[in-house]
């Protein structure tokens, strides 16, 4: 591709609204341009990288016996209502009415559509197992689009869906997709971890997220410092052992705490350890008020509340809801003398608090010498808090450490969540009707491109892994007005294309410094410079990743390139 008429507008300055490296470099290197908040156009360089990732995904999906389909982006509301997700999915679902006032959504995912397709056309166990996938544009109305294409409102995703006759078959399908995902992200040159995760609005139980390690990751990974255990912090169980003090129980007292609303304020003012404080947080769980209690040095994990109740929606109570159910404003609520309309759920650590402090459900008032079970009752003591660094690893090996990660893939065992709701059934070998057992597997293709850049860059620009680079080679003619340089560059361009290389040929009438700066910014694996030694048949070859520069005779260029590229990941 000749760069003179190639749409690759590079920028010298870092865009002010780009917060992270991948966003900055994708804009500066001319890979993307913003059309609206969270909506981007991919320019030729970005599109080529996108296609490289898509090709890797397709190859691994095909090796896993998945069949490619293409489903509509526009989905009728009836399908989502049938599955029960029309309301449960939340405001991220982009909804609209057509001219006949029929309700539709722009698809963020395709469980409903694929279940309908298979339900209508697969009736016998003889056609199962079956895995179908697509690579398609998705839409989610993110509250706060940020980080460029890492969190956008329109994005490209590969989603796959498996259909099996039993749980054992689902396990096999799941393992095949897990292996395929491992291959995809390895081939993309990413440092990643597969972590145990929460299925969220998707439904299902067994699930893993594929997380690219990055300091700007929006998810926290809890991992063992001595074993392979890794999980999203939202789902990691706590297996800590708590010691209960043998101090004498004191009498319950109410005391004034004017304007002391937070744990930190109480700790400082009362000179009391956070371990003695009981933090109370009110949630609305599927329209039911639930008061969650944790120790003051811990934080409530709402995902664990959701799992305990097998709930669809868990939200923090509003100020008005807190006053309604607790008869008190936030900051002073607690578990003593709570209305029977409110469930009280407590973390296991709360059970060992002796002579603690909690809110009195009265403005500017708290109780001291609070003892669980003597002074208040709870529905159940369960694991309710977020795991912390230094906690024992849930697998019993080592202690927990944290790392940040960017989610690029997610695999779910859905079971019969959608097939039962939507009537996707098959006749087994005995002629009996059974629900299909489903799995769901997604890869964020646009996210993967950005994640690659987050991990592969330096102070000069992008450093593309060979597998996903927009082009293999960057051919630069230092001076196109020099007849010998121009002639040799044209010869090499044609020769290398015939040899099967993808080449970006910088034939622009620009200064050498501009060309080299752009080349480093774009970051293709190997740069070939045709300069002053063109008359001698010598070119300069530079490896972007290592900075290695060698002079090569033109007749040895093919063998040199083959050797250099074979060493690059």
From TrEMBL:
<dbReference type="InterPro" id="IPR045864">
    <property type="entry name" value="aa-tRNA-synth_II/BPL/LPL"/>
</dbReference>
<dbReference type="Pfam" id="PF00587">
    <property type="entry name" value="tRNA-synt_2b"/>
</dbReference>
<dbReference type="InterPro" id="IPR036621">
    <property type="entry name" value="Anticodon-bd_dom_sf"/>
</dbReference>
<dbReference type="GO" id="GO:0005829">
    <property type="term" value="C:cytosol"/>
</dbReference>
<keyword id="KW-0030">Aminoacyl-tRNA synthetase</keyword>
<dbReference type="InterPro" id="IPR033730">
    <property type="entry name" value="ProRS_core_prok"/>
</dbReference>
<protein>
    <recommendedName>
        <fullName>Proline--tRNA ligase</fullName>
        <ecNumber>6.1.1.15</ecNumber>
    </recommendedName>
</protein>
<dbReference type="InterPro" id="IPR002314">
    <property type="entry name" value="aa-tRNA-synt_IIb"/>
</dbReference>
<dbReference type="GO" id="GO:0140096">
    <property type="term" value="F:catalytic activity, acting on a protein"/>
</dbReference>
<dbReference type="GO" id="GO:0005524">
    <property type="term" value="F:ATP binding"/>
</dbReference>
<dbReference type="GO" id="GO:0016740">
    <property type="term" value="F:transferase activity"/>
</dbReference>
<comment type="subunit">
    <text>Homodimer.</text>
</comment>
<dbReference type="InterPro" id="IPR023717">
    <property type="entry name" value="Pro-tRNA-Synthase_IIa_type1"/>
</dbReference>
<feature type="domain" description="Aminoacyl-transfer RNA synthetases class-II family profile">
    <location>
        <begin position="33"/>
        <end position="465"/>
    </location>
</feature>
<dbReference type="GO" id="GO:0006433">
    <property type="term" value="P:prolyl-tRNA aminoacylation"/>
</dbReference>
<dbReference type="InterPro" id="IPR004154">
    <property type="entry name" value="Anticodon-bd"/>
</dbReference>
<dbReference type="InterPro" id="IPR050062">
    <property type="entry name" value="Pro-tRNA_synthetase"/>
</dbReference>
<comment type="function">
    <text>Catalyzes the attachment of proline to tRNA(Pro) in a two-step reaction: proline is first activated by ATP to form Pro-AMP and then transferred to the acceptor end of tRNA(Pro). As ProRS can inadvertently accommodate and process non-cognate amino acids such as alanine and cysteine, to avoid such errors it has two additional distinct editing activities against alanine. One activity is designated as 'pretransfer' editing and involves the tRNA(Pro)-independent hydrolysis of activated Ala-AMP.</text>
</comment>
<dbReference type="InterPro" id="IPR044140">
    <property type="entry name" value="ProRS_anticodon_short"/>
</dbReference>
<keyword id="KW-0067">ATP-binding</keyword>
<comment type="similarity">
    <text>Belongs to the class-II aminoacyl-tRNA synthetase family. ProS type 1 subfamily.</text>
</comment>
<dbReference type="InterPro" id="IPR004500">
    <property type="entry name" value="Pro-tRNA-synth_IIa_bac-type"/>
</dbReference>
<keyword id="KW-0436">Ligase</keyword>
<dbReference type="Pfam" id="PF03129">
    <property type="entry name" value="HGTP_anticodon"/>
</dbReference>
<dbReference type="InterPro" id="IPR006195">
    <property type="entry name" value="aa-tRNA-synth_II"/>
</dbReference>
<dbReference type="GO" id="GO:0002161">
    <property type="term" value="F:aminoacyl-tRNA deacylase activity"/>
</dbReference>
<keyword id="KW-0648">Protein biosynthesis</keyword>
<dbReference type="InterPro" id="IPR002316">
    <property type="entry name" value="Pro-tRNA-ligase_IIa"/>
</dbReference>
<keyword id="KW-0963">Cytoplasm</keyword>
<keyword id="KW-0547">Nucleotide-binding</keyword>
<dbReference type="InterPro" id="IPR007214">
    <property type="entry name" value="YbaK/aa-tRNA-synth-assoc-dom"/>
</dbReference>
<dbReference type="GO" id="GO:0004827">
    <property type="term" value="F:proline-tRNA ligase activity"/>
</dbReference>
<dbReference type="Pfam" id="PF04073">
    <property type="entry name" value="tRNA_edit"/>
</dbReference>
<dbReference type="InterPro" id="IPR036754">
    <property type="entry name" value="YbaK/aa-tRNA-synt-asso_dom_sf"/>
</dbReference>
């Amino acid at each position: 591709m000749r760069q003179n008429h190639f749409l690759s507008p590079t920028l010298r300055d870092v865009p002010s609204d780009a917060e992270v490296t991948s966003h900055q470099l994708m804009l500066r290197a001319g890979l993307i341009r913003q059309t609206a908040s969270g909506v981007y156009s991919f320019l030729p360089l970005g599109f080529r990288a996108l296609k490289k990732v898509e090709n890797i995904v397709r190859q691994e999906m095909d090796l896993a016996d998945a069949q490619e389909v293409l489903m509509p982006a526009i989905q009728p509301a009836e399908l989502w209502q049938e599955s029960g997700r029309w309301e449960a999915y939340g405001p991220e679902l982009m909804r609209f009415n057509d001219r006949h006032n029929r309700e539709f959504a722009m698809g963020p995912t395709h469980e409903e559509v694929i279940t309908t397709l298979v339900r209508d056309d697969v009736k016998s166990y003889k056609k199962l197992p079956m895995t179908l996938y697509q690579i398609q544009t998705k839409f989610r109305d993110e509250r706060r689009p940020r980080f460029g294409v890492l969190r956008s409102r329109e994005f490209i995703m590969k989603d796959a869906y498996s259909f099996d006759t039993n749980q054992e078959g689902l396990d096999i399908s799941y393992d095949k997709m897990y292996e395929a995902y491992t291959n995809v992200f390895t081939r993309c040159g990413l440092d990643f971890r597969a972590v145990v995760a929460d299925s969220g609005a998707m439904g299902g139980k067994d699930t893993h997220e594929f997380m690219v390690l990055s300091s700007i990751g929006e998810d926290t990974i809890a991992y063992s410092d001595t074993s392979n255990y890794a999980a999203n912090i939202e789902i990691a169980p706590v297996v800590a052992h708590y010691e209960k003090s043998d101090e004498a129980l004191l009498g319950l007292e109410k005391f004034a705490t004017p304007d002391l609303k937070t744990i930190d304020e109480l700790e400082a003012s009362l000179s009391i350890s956070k371990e003695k404080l009981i933090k109370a947080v009110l949630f609305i769980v599927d329209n039911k008020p639930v008061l969650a209690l944790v120790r003051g040095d811990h934080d409530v994990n709402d995902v664990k509340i959701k799992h305990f109740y097998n709930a669809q929606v868990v939200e923090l109570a509003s100020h008005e809801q807190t006053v309604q159910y607790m008869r008190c404003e936030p900051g002073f609520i607690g578990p003593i003398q709570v209305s029977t309309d409110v469930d009280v759920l407590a973390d296991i650590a709360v059970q060992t608090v002796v002579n603690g402090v909690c809110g009195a459900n009265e403005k500017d008032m708290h109780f001291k010498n609070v003892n669980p079970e003597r002074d208040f009752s709870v529905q159940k003591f369960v694991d309710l808090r977020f795991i912390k660094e230094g906690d024992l690893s849930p697998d019993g090996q080592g202690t927990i450490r944290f790392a940040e990660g960017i989610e690029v893939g997610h695999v779910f065992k859905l079971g019969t969540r959608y097939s039962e709701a939507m009537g996707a059934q098959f006749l087994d070998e005995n002629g009996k009707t059974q629900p299909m057992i489903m799995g769901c597997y997604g890869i964020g293709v646009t996210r993967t491109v950005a994640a690659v850049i987050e991990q592969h860059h330096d102070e000069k620009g992008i450093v593309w892994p060979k597998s996903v680079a927009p082009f293999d080679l960057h051919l630069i003619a230092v001076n196109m007005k020099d007849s010998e340089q121009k002639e040799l560059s044209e010869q090499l361009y044609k020769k290398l294309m015939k040899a099967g290389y993808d080449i970006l040929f910088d034939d622009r009438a620009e200064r050498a410094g501009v060309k080299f700066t752009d080349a480093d910014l774009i970051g293709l694996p190997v740069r070939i410079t045709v300069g002053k030694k063109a008359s001698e048949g010598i070119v300069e070859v530079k490896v972007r990743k290592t900075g290695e520069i060698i002079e090569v005779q033109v007749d040895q260029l093919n063998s040199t390139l083959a050797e250099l590229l074979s060493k690059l990941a």
